[in-house]
Amino acid sequence: MSIHISAAPGEIAPIVLLPGDPLRAKYIATTFLSSPQLVSETRNCLFYTGSYKGQQISVGASGMGCPSIGIYSYELYTEYQVNTIIRIGTCGAYDPALQLFDLINVKQAVSESTFALHAWGIKGSVLNSQGNTYEVINQLAKQKKLPLQEGAIHSSDVFYSNQEGFSPLAMEHGCLAVEMESFALFANATHCKKNAACLLTVSDLIAAKQKLTPEQREKALLPMIDLALDTAASLKIRN
Ligand code: HPA
Fold first, then answer.
1. Is the distance from the beta carbon of residue 149 to the nearest atom of ligand 1 less than 6 Å?
2. Which of 23, 79, 205, 235 is the most buried (most CB within 10 A)?
3. Can you give the pLDDT at residue 236?
4. Which residues have CB under 8 Å from 86's CB, separation 6+?
């Protein structure tokens, strides 16, 4: 049991899929895992553990933004001996070549956030995904013939703002899209010497002002969920 997760020791698997939304965690666990057990519901931030293709996997929620994923990922790494966290989320496209439903494997997270510096003295505004999970995702996507973009994304601390145009820092680093969590996840993984990856589905085209409808969202996320689950099953075998 940690401050924000009430699972008993051993009730969280070494590999965790981490969507932002607790109800998405519940949907993934109850739809795709065999024998899913609810292991924590502190603050309604649900965590489940079950098996997928014979491997134990946990699925839980990170909440929104760097402070929230910073708390959950740190407690998972340090109090539950989690090796690998795969964030699965949505993002807004900056790159006009991206389309709704496109999948991005995040190589680097770029951020104005002081999280990494403030928490761990890690300097700089660019952090890499950690460990080989990023490569495994690329290999599996190739096997599945699933189109996957790879590159840098912007982890922003703001969703609403009165600023015109995209973040200058994000543009300087050629960020494909924007989300709000990867930078803190990669910072914690760097500090804890653990593995972290992030898969994103494009849910918004920012310049074109288009969004997935709520009905489209459910189906849109299925290829990402499938890829993340197969990656998790394959990592477990490799570990
Ligand atoms: N901004 C930040 N995070 C997001 C967005 C966005 O436009 N879309 C999906 N996640």
1. no
2. 235
3. 63
4. 15, 16, 17, 18, 133, 137, 196, 197, 198, 199, 228, 231, 232
Q: Is 91 in the pocket of ligand 1 (CB under 6 A)?
A: yes
| Architecture of the domain made up of 15-237 | 3-Layer(aba) Sandwich (3.40)
Helix (H, G, I), strand (E, B) or coil at 160: coil
What confidence score (pLDDT) does residue 239 get?
43
Residue of the CA atom closest to atom 7 of ligand 1: 92
- The question of whether 102 is a catalytic residue gets the answer no
Distance from Cα 197 to the centre of ligand 1, integer Å:
18
Domain positions in the chain: 15-237
Cα 114 from Cα 89, distance rounded (Å)? 22
Whole-number Å distance, alpha carbon 66 to ligand 1 midpoint, is 13
Q: Are 20 and 64 in contact (CB under 8 A)?
A: yes
Model pLDDT for residues 165-205, shown as the tens digit of each residue = 899 999 999 999 999 999 999 999 999 999 999 999 999 99
Closest CA to 104 of 121, 89, 126, 84: 89
